[in-house]
Automatic annotation (TrEMBL):
Entry's localization field: Cytoplasm
Entry's Gene Ontology cellular component terms: cytoplasm
HAMAP family xrefs: UDG
Protein's organism: Mangrovimonas spongiae
Organism taxonomic ancestry: Bacteria, Pseudomonadati, Bacteroidota, Flavobacteriia, Flavobacteriales
Descriptive protein name: Uracil-DNA glycosylase
Pfam families: UDG (PF03167)
Enzyme Commission number, as recorded: 3.2.2.27
């Protein structure tokens, strides 16, 4: 697995790539991709970084694990490849956008269009074995993605972090709330959303208000 990542990230992450844990992670990933079906495809593992350069980050959304079904994961959290049915969490995200800012429910669940505007769609774990949720957790990805979050916090200002659900909320310890905006809510999964913890959070209009307040272009959700 070559680390093919947008050049803008390299000054900030090169030290991570050299660390023993990351080298061990690469060995594990190479072996698992050779011996099992894994997602996303190898060329898309770093899609979140390649669609959103370090300089362009305005918003960070943190997910947990890639989708583990065929053709779903494309390297961006919550996003699916064009033409793939929308998973339940993504359906609820689009429903909230529809209610919050009156953007019609889209045909495509591919969120590259967000990433290209400066939304880093970061899963805590960047790979998974087919049909086995969480199978690549605790192999080193979380160490890497925690370093990514802290690096953004340390080296940027006025980034809007959207932390959905208990797992993502724990990442707030890595973020300097004095120089960034942190919005939290329940997770968009049906379990949480249907109990009233997701719908009505208005995170999409709130994010755009904060961006405009700080002099940035709002996101076209």
């Amino acid at each position: 697995m070559d680390v093919k990542i947008n050049d803008s990230w390299k000054p900030y992450l090169q030290a991570e790539f050299e660390k023993p844990y990351f080298k061990n992670l690469v060995c594990f990933i190479k072996s698992d991709y050779q011996n099992h079906t894994c997602y996303p495809p190898g060329s898309l593992i770093f899609s979140a970084f390649n669609h959103c350069s370090f300089n362009d980050i305005k918003v960070v959304i943190i997910g947990q694990d890639p989708y583990h079904g065929a053709n779903q994961a494309n390297g961006l959290c919550f996003s699916v490849t064009d033409g793939v049915p929308h998973p339940p969490s993504l359906i609820n995200i689009f429903k909230e956008i529809e209610k919050d800012i009156q953007v019609p429910y889209p045909k495509s669940g591919n969120l590259e269009r967000w990433a290209d505007q400066g939304v880093l769609l970061l899963n805590a774990t960047l790979t998974v074995r087919a049909g086995q949720a969480g199978s690549h957790q605790n192999k080193g990805w979380e160490t890497f993605t925690d370093a990514v979050i802290k690096t953004i916090s340390d080296n940027k200002e006025h980034v809007v972090f959207l932390l959905w659900g208990g797992y993502a909320k724990k990442k707030s310890r890595l973020i300097d709330g004095n120089k960034h905006h942190i919005l939290t809510s329940g997770h968009p999964s049906p379990l949480s959303a249907n109990r009233g913890y997701w719908f009505g959070n208005k995170h999409f209009s709130k994010t755009n208000s904060l961006l405009e307040q700080d002099g940035f272009q709002p996101i076209s959700w």
